[in-house]
Specification:
Elements lengths: L10 H6 L2 E2 L10 E4 L2 E4 L17 H34 L7 H32 L3 H18 L16 E2 L5 H13 L1 H8 L14 E5 L3 H18 L7 E4 L2 H9 L10 H12 L9 H7 L4 H17 L6 H13 L28 E14 L3 E11 L3 E4 L4 E4 L7 E2 L2 E2 L8 H8 L7 H11 L4 H17 L1 H8 L7 E4 L9 E4 L10 H4 L8 E6 L7 H15 L2 E9 L2 E7 L13 E7 L12 H4 L9 H40 L1
Helix pairs in contact: 2-3, 2-12, 4-11, 7-8, 7-9, 7-20, 11-12, 12-13
Length: 664
């Protein structure tokens, strides 16, 4: 195995080192240096790799550095794992019978890493050559800081800075959500009558059950699968009867696109989004030059960079730290939300502006989620770590567990004694998406548990678990706990809004570390959801015991008794949620029915095709064939086991509410 001293720079560092500012310090636009040669854009020809001078752009430097970090996490992890495994094998040769085999495997990992590096170097080099307007992109980055700073206090760009705000202390729904519920029921009245098969005259809006869709996490895989399931419900007529659509992690990415001008204004936003996936997901998000390639397609480079990356500057001006996960969010929006014509998209980069698509009742209300990790002491369980859930809607942001809510447009401000003390712009949705999908910020323990659940059983899995067990004994419990609580990346930094006087900041992360389904906000005591239709395309979907465990945690936290109602089909299980039992937190107050629909393999689509196993959450590229197959699987599973069963549940819920109204 090569020693550390001979370890070469990462492929990202090697290729990016070819782009450097003019050593003479020239500030002439279009001036560049390639491999030590100076020239201008006029000098370049088809065989010359060209860049602009890199002016003093802190954002660009940090972005490229962060992209390099994100891109090389797997690479470094593999290298470190190879070195660490070999080291452990050598030092413990007397105790571990298979030390030689482990060391040999570690050498093989190193060889694979080198091959990946070489291939990535070739791809990156060709990508640089393909970006003809790289000069303009870098110049736009150099202007970003001043552009954002100039608009930071512009009331025309950020009208929210004209207002002060107080924290709302309550767990009632805000007025805007209550108003939405009224108009939504009126709007879906005809669709619901058609769905249940009766004349619209037989429908009283108060009898229409509150139906909520719930989409799981699981990276781009979940983004595609959740969208595919929703497309299937459109054909059934159910989609038009929904009230809420809540998401975790990858599903949040789908929601952000559905409620953007890219798709919300189309005749069929869901189908349009599925078609768009086939175009946008061909390049890897972690390719350091992939995002430059996406930006280069827009007609307004400065606007594209301002919208995607301006939030990093805004966050620092709001006295917050911009971390790697914030840059990850900017890369996501550059990948998923930018269109060629950007002016109509300015509103897409503020979550509060999504209400323009649904406040009149024409669409469901989206609910995004994140969690805060901490230890809570209760009389019942003693010292126990758990996660507090926070929900983000275009109306409000807050937590039922704390009873503290602020208008969405005020997220990013500092609060003291329940009032905002500064007026800064609403946090860019780029940084929110980074936070919603911040699985890399999860503690190492979460990765370990996921590995145990999703890794294929066999010698390699058993040996790695055995090695970790030996390592844990070696370092002791205290050090083991510290290691397991460590994260690869720090969670997003945000100002705390609540009633703990001594608390000024808090860190929110991907809610999938707590539960892969956004059930917590849907059993909110004031929402009174009647039916939850949950699509699970998480990495642990094949381990049903994990779903059961998370259900039990939910039941304990929310005071719910769970009844198994119909478990005949693995593609659609039905559970009753009955409230008013002892709980560890704010109790649910309304009975509802959960329709659990796991994204499982189906031989009628393709034998042994298991996307939740084959497509790991770090897979960021999908071709048209893969996407079509995922759509086909969601549709087949829905039609085969869920469509009729869910419909019967909804009709039953409607009749129950109708009969209760008539009786009273």
């Amino acid at each position: 195995m090569a020693d550390k001293g001979s370890k070469k720079n990462s492929w990202f560092s090697n290729i990016f080192s070819q782009i450097s500012p003019d050593k003479e310090g020239t500030k002439e636009k279009g001036r560049y240096i390639i491999n030590g040669k100076t020239g201008t854009n006029k000098d370049k020809d088809e065989n010359t790799t060209t860049t602009a001078e890199t002016t003093e752009s802190g954002v660009l430097d940090r972005t490229m550095h962060a992209v390099g970090n994100i891109a090389s996490v797997a690479e470094n992890a593999a290298e470190n794992a190879a070195e660490n495994v070999a080291s452990v094998a050598e030092s413990a040769a007397g105790n571990i019978a298979n030390a030689a085999i482990v060391a040999e495997a570690a050498d093989a990992v190193t060889d694979i890493v080198e091959n990946v590096e070489n291939a990535a170097m070739e791809v990156a080099t060709s990508t640089v050559k393909s970006i003809s307007n790289l000069s303009d992109i870098i110049n736009a980055f150099s202007k970003l800081e001043s552009t954002v700073k100039d608009k930071f206090k512009d009331e025309l760009v950020h009208p929210e800075i004209k207002e002060d705000v107080e924290i709302r202390k309550s767990n009632d729904l805000c007025k805007e959500e209550e108003d939405f519920l009224k108009v939504r029921k009126e709007y879906i009245k005809e669709s619901f009558a058609k769905y249940v098969g009766v004349d619209v005259k037989e429908i009283d809006v108060d009898d229409i059950p509150v139906i909520a869709f719930a989409g799981s996490g699981g990276g781009f895989r979940a983004m595609i699968a959740n969208t595919a399931y929703i497309r299937a419900t459109q054909d059934s007529g159910l989609y038009d009867c929904g009230t809420y659509f809540a998401g975790v992690s990858g599903c949040c990415l789908s929601l952000a696109q559905q409620y953007s001008s890219l798709h919300a204004t189309k005749d069929n936003p869901i189908q349009d989004l599925l078609d768009d996936f086939k175009i946008r997901l061909t390049d890897h998000i972690a390719n350091p030059f992939g995002f430059l390639k996406e930006i280069s397609k827009t007609s307004q480079l400065e606007t594209a960079i301002e919208l995607s990356f301006g939030g990093l500057v805004e966050k620092e001006h709001a006295n917050l730290k911009a971390r790697v996960i914030d840059t990850f969010g900017s890369l996501l929006t550059a990948k998923l939300l930018l269109e060629k014509d950007l002016e109509p998209q300015r509103q897409d980069f503020k979550l509060s502006q999504q209400k323009r698509f649904f406040k009149d009742g024409k669409k469901m209300m989206p609910i995004y989620t994140a969690v805060e990790s901490h230890k809570a002491e209760t009389e019942k369980v003693g010292l126990k770590k758990h996660y507090d859930w926070y929900e983000f809607t275009p109306f409000e942001i807050g937590s039922e567990e704390h009873g503290a809510w602020i208008p969405t447009w005020s997220f990013g401000r500092e609060f003291k004694s329940g009032k905002s003390v500064n007026r800064v712009p609403e946090q860019n949705i780029s940084q929110l998406l980074g936070m919603f999908g911040s699985a890399p910020c999860a503690p190492f323990k979460e990765y370990l548990e996921t590995f145990k659940q999703v890794a294929t059983d066999g010698w390699a899995k058993e040996k790695l678990i055995e090695l970790y067990s030996d390592f844990s004994v070696l370092v002791g419990d205290d050090m083991k706990d510290k290691i397991e609580e460590t994260s690869i990346f720090l969670p997003a930094d945000n100002h705390y809004h609540g009633f703990m006087v001594s608390k000024l900041r808090f860190e929110l992360l991907d809610s999938g570390v707590s539960n892969d389904l956004p059930l917590y906000p849907l059993v909110h005591s004031s929402r009174k959801v009647d039916v939850i239709i949950a699509f699970d395309s998480s990495g642990t979907v094949n381990k049903h015991e994990d779903f059961v465990k998370k259900q039990e945690e939910l039941a304990s936290r929310k005071g719910i008794k769970i009844e198994e109602r119909d478990l005949e089909s693995k593609y659609c299980e039905i559970y009753n949620y009955l409230p008013n039992v002892e709980s560890d937190g704010p109790s649910a107050a309304h009975p509802c029915t959960l329709c659990y629909i796991p994204y499982l393999p189906n031989d009628k689509v393709k034998k042994n095709f298991a996307p939740c196993v084959e497509y790991f959450m770090t897979k960021f590229t999908y071709n048209e064939e893969e996407i079509d197959l995922m759509i086909k699987l969601a549709k087949q599973n829905w039609l085969e086991a869920a469509e009729e069963k869910v419909k019967n549940i909804i009709i039953e819920a409607w009749k129950k509410k109708r009969d209760a109204r008539v009786k009273n």
